[in-house]
Design a protein that fits this description.
Structural class: alpha+beta
Order of helices and strands: EHHEEEEH
Helix content: 25-40%
Strand order of the largest sheet: 1-5-4
Oligomer: single chain
């Protein structure tokens, strides 16, 4: 089984080797990183980055906390994890395409806390595996 590296920092214990949320550039009108290849997924990733930029560091979060953030911003909370977990159905004209994430970007523990993974941060920065600043 593949090992998943999650990031869970607290404000007093921030890992200087990990890219900070405010170091991830958000591009275009979608306000997302342009490294996922599908606009809707880039938008979802961008919203998640904005959530962490507000917090100032990568930390565990609950679905309810993210839902409240989405509602505050006026975004559709039904799309909070669109394309980042499970399959993403892209409707294009007369056909549809289903794509699955290349990596595990969001992990959940046994009590319902969610975490972003190093793979998510690396993908947002346009590279795999490496998340060093």
């Amino acid at each position: 089984m593949k090992e998943i590296e999650v990031i869970d920092e607290i404000a007093e214990r921030i890992d200087p080797s990990v890219v900070r949320p405010d170091q991830i550039p958000l591009s275009g009108e979608m306000s997302g990183p342009s490294s996922f290849g599908i606009a809707e997924i880039e938008e979802t990733a961008g919203h998640l980055i904005q959530f962490f930029q507000l917090r100032g560091h990568w930390c565990r979060f609950t679905i309810d906390e993210l839902r409240r953030f989405y509602e505050l911003k006026g975004w559709n909370p039904n799309l909070m994890f669109s394309g980042l977990i499970g399959g993403h159905i892209h409707m294009g004209g007369m056909s549809e395409m289903i794509s699955a994430p290349r990596e595990i970007y969001i992990a959940m523990d046994e009590v319902g806390n969610c975490y972003v993974t190093k793979a998510f941060i690396g993908q947002c920065m346009g590279r795999k595996e490496s998340v060093a600043a």
